[in-house]
């Protein structure tokens, strides 16, 4: 057995910190191999791990190997149309045939139905008009949104108060907090880009955007298993000829909505299992310092 130098735990803690910093903030395994080969002390392995994992310099600057905190949560789920909606904006559009640059999007969490408004600005009036374009404005209970100045304005908040619509803002620079909308954004942008490059003749992107949203609403959603327009309005969007389509009843729609909710919960639970696999839950307290 190789002889080792015995040092006190108090001294070992300071020694570990110095070695960690002097050697360029090396990782836990390297620290253990180098120090434990020569020295021994009470709680040596435990202290090496604790010091490396809590090193502020490492936490701020290392791009990998850090513990991931926070488990996947779920707003809702919505159990009926317009119980929860999301608002978002996609920028970067425009061209010679349109002065409009933004696609404002309102999506219903339950049916996944999307409403859009194209505009050259991002002010409160745009978002108010977007909500008013939704025929079921009076049914909206809650809106989830990023902190755009137009949405965070007094004018827009006053409008929501009048409509008795609550609003929850996502954290700054955290688009994943509104994952449903971000995924829808990606879907619509891809559809619009494909359609723009599909035509030999130039068509205004605003016209293409509205057409793509209509097509999206009439397409079966991979999570719910139903087209948004069917779950919201009972619209039959199957490819069968009209002569062969069977008339859908109110009961059929109720059953479809129940199944859509089940599919939504099932999908969320599956994604949560994967997302939470390598993450940790932590309870923060007032006064805790976080990065």
TrEMBL record:
SUPFAM superfamilies with a match to the protein in the record: Ribonuclease H-like
State which Enzyme Commission number(s) the record gives.
2.7.7.49
- PROSITE patterns recorded for this chain? INTEGRASE
Looking at its record, which EC class is this enzyme? Answer: transferase
Residues forming the Integrase catalytic domain are 77-236
Q: Which domain of life is it from?
A: Eukaryota
**Gene Ontology MF terms in the entry:** nucleic acid binding; RNA-directed DNA polymerase activity
Q: Name one GO biological process term.
A: DNA integration
PANTHER family attached to this UniProt entry: PROTEIN CBG26694, PROTEIN NYNRIN-LIKE
Name listed for the protein in its UniProt record:
RNA-directed DNA polymerase
